[in-house]
Amino acid sequence: MSLESAVERILIPEADIEARVRELGAEITKDYNGKEPILVGMLRGCVVFYSELLKNIKTKCTLDFMCLSSYCGMESTGEVRILLDVRGTIKDRHVILIEDIVDTGLTLDYVLKNLRNRGAASVEICTLLDKPSNRKVTVPVKYRGFEIPNEFVIGYGLDYNELYRNLPYIGVYKQK
Ligand SMILES: O=P(O)(O)OC[C@H]1O[C@H](OP(=O)(O)OP(=O)(O)O)[C@H](O)[C@@H]1O
Ligand code: HPA
Predict the structure, then answer these.
(1) Quick one: DSSP state of residue 72?
(2) ipTM topping 0.95
(3) Where would I find the Phosphoribosyltransferase domain in this sequence (predicted)?
């Protein structure tokens, strides 16, 4: 079965994503000039967005990553686990959490509290996609690429059971 056969329809074409990511990069560059932020990518879904955004941030910054897991198929288990933690210290740093999607909000709610407890100077969220209609907890999203409807999406880093992350656009997953 081809990659594309899992796609019901294309929701956001590659060119639109690239244009929006350039705008987000410009905003972050302006807001964080002189603050030397640490960009904490939430593995693995963030990888494509993270690297594209990074090229568009034109101020000094450092990179780090966390890996959390809570999904099984299309459902959040509600239990968030840290599988990999940041390598560097967070204390007194300006943190930008880079996510592919905020859906129920459970993952970022957990991470926000965790990093604030470690004494970060500030923690903000930058997400490519925001699905507000499925929220279970409120999370403050500062930088948002696109608001999307309550549908399960794949591509541009997002998976269904670890597959389809390498599609170059955001598509709605075709349920069998
Ligand atoms: O707002 P939520 O409902 O918590 O969903 C958002 C999270 O779910 C996905 O991660 P997942 O646990 O599937 O891991 P992944 O990044 O490896 O895909 C996604 O990358 C976000 O981190
Ligand atoms: O719509 C989604 N697609 C892929 N991964 C996800 N994690 C939360 N929501 C989604």
Answers:
(1) E
(2) yes
(3) 17-160
Digit-coded pLDDT (tens) for 133-162: 999 999 999 999 999 999 999 999 999 999
What does the alpha-carbon distance between residue 137 and residue 107 come to, in Å, rounded to a whole number?
A: 10
> Would you say the CB of residue 71 lies under 6 angstroms from ligand 2?
yes
pLDDT digits (tens, 9 = 90+) for 61-105: 999 999 998 777 777 777 888 999 999 899 999 999 999 999 999
Which residues are part of the catalytic machinery?
103
Ligand whose nearest atom lies closest to the CA of 112: 1
Domain that holds residue 21: 4-173
The CATH number covering residue 62 comes to 3.40.50.2020
Residue 125: which of 139, 114, 104 has the closest Cα? 139
Cβ(154) – ligand 1 distance below 6 Å: no
